[in-house]
């Protein structure tokens, strides 16, 4: 019994609701019935153990009975709950609005496309062509005419006639040196004879 009495003396509302506190208050109050033999004492003991916020809220009202105390306390507690719930709703709405604005995707600015400067045309490398050596060709008719004119001035050393050499002479060997030799006879071979009549220029055919 003494334990319950001490428990009643140490009773505080704390985090309990008003109805939870009243159930505990009435249960332990049976062990201190002598201290609550009047309605005024019972109201006084109950108010002393209420939460400070609730006790301050009901101070403005005149309370003479436990019934009046319970009605006023429940009314204040209900009003405080509404205020708390309203604050929670406003805070949740504000948090949602700030969260949605922060998570809204930001559109990146489109990149600026700059026109490219015109590139100069590339020069194609053309390898140099090999120079061809141009050999001036003289028509064969000119060469043949030159040979014919040269043969006209040739005199055979055997017969003295023109237009052929002594090796090609159709006449028998006479031992003469030809019409151009005067004085002492000179012996000439065929190589010397050909060398004398070699041309001084040559045309490439």
From TrEMBL:
The keyword Glycoprotein does not apply. Residues 156-170 form the CCHC-type domain. Gene3D superfamilies: Zinc finger, CCHC-type. One of its GO terms (molecular function) is zinc ion binding. InterPro entries: Retrotrans_gag_dom (IPR005162), Znf_CCHC (IPR001878), Znf_CCHC_sf (IPR036875). It comes from the Eukaryota. Residues 94-127, 167-187 are annotated as: Disordered. Keywords: Metal-binding, Zinc, Zinc-finger. This is CCHC-type domain-containing protein.
